[in-house]
Automatic annotation (TrEMBL):
Signal peptide: 1-18
InterPro entries found in the cross-reference section: ABC_Transporter_SBP, ABC_transptr_periplasmic_BD
Family: Belongs to the bacterial solute-binding protein 8 family.
Protein name: Iron transporter
Phylogenetic placement of the source organism: Bacteria, Bacillati, Actinomycetota, Actinomycetes, Kitasatosporales
Keywords: Signal
Domain of life: Bacteria
Presence of the UniProt keyword Signal in the record: yes
Native species: Streptomyces curacoi
Amino acid sequence: MRKLLATALCLTATAALSGCGATVQPSAQTDGNSAVTLTNCGRKVTYDKVPERVVTNDVGITELMFALGLEDRMAGFAMPDDKGDLTGVPWKDGYDKVKWLSKDQLTKENALDADADLVFAGWNYGFREDSGFTPEALKKLGIASYVLTESCRNGRTESARGIMPPLDALYADLTNLGKLFGVEQRAATLIAGFRKQIAEVRAKAPTGADRPKVFLYDSGQDQPFTSGRYAAPEQIISEAGGTNVMHDVQDSWTTVGWESVVRRDPDVIVICDYGDVSAEQKRKFLLSYAPLRDVSAVRNKRIFVLDYVDLVESPRNPSAVARLGAYLRTVAKER
């Protein structure tokens, strides 16, 4: 499996904390039995007590819990095994400690078997109408839910997702989880570290016409799957010093047509690395696909690779901004 790029994120984001884990000490607000009310996806949600057996879906959501030192509050996680080598990540201890429940998406059976009292997932990150795995269905089973903010339905269409800028979604979830689990200071420290790291990249980023145009390529040959303005790549690209060519698409992750990519002529293509098709296979396809031959990124072979976990809401987003920022500064100088 591919090695995920962890770098020194743990040191950067948790400089004021000891290690990558934390002992959860309930605050006065969360003494274990007191109710906590949060705003999640625009709705007030009340939790009667601090969850003790949380089940998560996918790598980014799981690592949000680990980044807050909440592995002791987890009963397990579900995650496909195509997300890279997890032994070198900042939260290796969390992966070693928490049970891997399924190498597919979460199901009600997973949650019930784990005796879960909270499921932390998102729309198309576990929650989905077609299988009946929804917060409403879990509520009937006596299991609470928290919905990943990046995935919140925005009301424009039945399936369109995203209600706020992606990094704001990351900060909102860290703040909410900090309040729910009584680790507000750890959440605040993480957010402050992330903001500082991103501000440093922004200060060096190209401006105006020098900003490279960037297309995010997730997958697909007949039609590309990409990121609109509400998924994490939008702000990862913009904070790094580029412009997402699909900024006007009012959705998070969605399918577009190749003709729209050609028309917008990106200077750089960022590949999302995961799944059965390797980043190198995706690169070869892009460079050999005839309709793209005159696109600047293909003509100049400006293709940059980030891992899946870098490009979904996760505590690795700031590190992705820094790495992409360094690449885009080089591209800006060459143009």
